[in-house]
């Protein structure tokens, strides 16, 4: 019998537990440890932030669902991982031993890297559902007395899609309230150009998103480094393609939502051989840590290199499609190790995104994520907005039932069908 412990219960951790339960032997124990009693569908957070969704709509209670599936659930924060002795410390002072460990703890949000940044500073966030709930309360007051808005992503960020989504969702919400004329919106991003997305662009994401920003009267500053944020003023340095200062901006705002850079969580930070200097888990092509051969990792907490160097540092995003393929590869590889074999399954690492733009949307596929690619495709339309809503509802319904499917793979195949149809 082996105990397989999964840290984290997000888009990586929950499907990981469900797939691992199916792949493991009957006598093995699958155990999930997560600080949150619920799963949250993170991609819906921008909707929560303008009250288009209630937080309950995107949450799933984990304990009853895991119980039904024969998975042990421990609702505790992990304070430290000890890969040298196969043990984990929990916040209540207890410890858990493991035979195999899968780290799926998502990101630590590095707000502290910019003075005045984040929910404890002067800006709102959509990165966690609790932040989105706070942002929604702020939004309620803001719309009574509106003013300038800044949205975007700071230096070192790797997750750009939600910044675009939030800018256009806020724009749509303000238009519905007929107060958009009172709200100048500026999009401030570390990307070298609009639509780069940490991916070097995908298909015509540059043209599509530039066009959308223009049509929605949203001004943009690219190659931007946020120096500090004060109450009502964001201090930004715009750099040229060599990274040299081009212009300083002092941008007034009444409401700002910026995506931070990510790091790995404190429970693994600084562990020699396990993580890189930013705390992301080092993995080989089989999702396995090269030093600790019974430790795997999936999701935003894995270390992957940026797609290319940019004048202001940016990272490459880890999206649902990639995470799903990491999960499947890991479940198969742990089973192989249980059977005394070497792991042989590799994740596909394709990027697929449905970015909601309020009442329309942009879809893109990058196969593989790292250029040069076999497929790069992007398209715009109201169908993307509707497809994102349908996908959200389907995903959450299945997780409530404890069913993990290749959600993104199926969506990707459908979109690939559309691409082929359009090409023929
Ligand atoms: C706002 C936003 C929107 C996004 N939208 C999309 C999208 O539309 N499409 C897409 O493909 N990707 C999207 N992404 C990217 C990615 O899919 C998500 O970030 C996704 O949630 C990552 O899943 P994860 O499991 O790696 O991390 P998370 O979902 O963050 O899960 C991490 C889990 O670990 C737990 N945890 C963390 N630390 C500890 C600890 N010390 N002890 C115990 N538990 C711990 C957390 O409570 C949580 O349960 C989006 C990201 C963001 C931030």
Automatic annotation (TrEMBL):
Keywords: FAD, Flavoprotein, Membrane, Nucleotide-binding, Oxidoreductase, Quinone. GO terms for molecular function: NAD(P)H dehydrogenase (quinone) activity; nucleotide binding; quinone binding; sulfide:quinone oxidoreductase activity. It catalyses: n a quinone + n hydrogen sulfide + n H(+) = polysulfur(n-2) + n a quinol. It is found in: Membrane. It comes from the Bacteria. SUPFAM superfamilies: FAD/NAD(P)-binding domain (SSF51905). It is a peripheral membrane protein. Its EC number is 1.8.5.4. Its cofactor is FAD. Residues 3-306 form the FAD/NAD(P)-binding domain. One of its GO terms (biological process) is aerobic electron transport chain. GO terms for cellular component: membrane. Belongs to the SQRD family. Catalyzes the oxidation of hydrogen sulfide, with the help of a quinone. Consecutive reaction cycles lead to the accumulation of a polysulfide product on the active site Cys residues; these products are released when they exceed a critical length, typically as cyclooctasulfur. This is Sulfide-quinone reductase.
């Amino acid at each position: 019998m082996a105990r397989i412990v999964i840290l984290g219960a997000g888009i990586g951790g929950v499907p990981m537990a469900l797939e691992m339960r199916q792949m493991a032997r009957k006598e093995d124990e699958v155990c999930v440890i997560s600080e949150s009693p619920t799963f949250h569908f993170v991609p819906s957070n921008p909707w929560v932030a303008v009250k288009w969704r209630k937080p309950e709509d995107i949450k799933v209670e984990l304990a009853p669902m895991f119980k039904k599936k024969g998975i042990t659930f421990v609702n505790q924060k992990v304070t430290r991982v000890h890969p040298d002795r196969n043990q984990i410390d929990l916040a209540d002072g207890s410890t858990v031993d493991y035979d195999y460990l899968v780290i799926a703890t998502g990101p630590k949000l590095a707000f502290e890297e910019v003075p005045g940044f984040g929910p404890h500073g002067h800006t709102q966030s959509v990165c966690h559902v609790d932040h989105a709930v706070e942002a929604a309360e702020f939004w309620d007051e803001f719309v009574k007395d509106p003013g300038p808005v800044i949205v975007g992503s700071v230096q070192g960020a790797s997750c750009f899609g939600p910044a675009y989504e939030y800018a256009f969702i806020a724009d749509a919400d303000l238009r519905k309230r007929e107060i958009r004329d009172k709200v100048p919106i500026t999009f401030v991003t570390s990307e070298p150009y609009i639509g780069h997305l940490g991916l070097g662009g995908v298909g015509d994401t540059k043209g599509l998103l530039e066009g959308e920003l223009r049509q929605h009267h949203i001004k943009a500053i690219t190659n931007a480094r946020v120096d500090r944020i004060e109450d009502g003023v964001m201090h930004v340095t715009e750099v040229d393609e060599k990274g040299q200062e081009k212009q300083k901006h002092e941008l007034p705002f009444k409401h700002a939502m910026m995506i931070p850079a990510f790091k790995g969580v404190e429970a693994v930070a600084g562990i020699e051989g396990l993580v890189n200097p930013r705390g992301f888990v080092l993995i080989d092509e089989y999702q396995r840590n090269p030093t600790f051969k019974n430790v795997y990792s999936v999701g935003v907490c894995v270390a992957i290199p940026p797609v290319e160097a940019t004048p202001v540092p940016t990272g490459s995003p880890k999206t649902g499609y990639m995470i799903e393929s990491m999960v499947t590869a890991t479940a198969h590889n742990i089973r192989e190790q249980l059977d005394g074999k070497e792991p042989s399954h590799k994740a596909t690492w394709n990027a697929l995104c449905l970015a909601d733009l309020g009442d329309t949307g942009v879809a893109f596929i990058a196969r593989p994520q790292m250029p040069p690619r076999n497929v790069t495709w992007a398209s715009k339309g109201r169908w993307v907005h509707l497809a994102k809503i349908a996908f959200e509802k389907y995903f959450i319904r299945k997780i409530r039932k404890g069913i993990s499917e290749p959600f993104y793979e199926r969506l990707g195949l459908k979109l690939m069908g559309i691409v082929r149809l359009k090409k023929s």
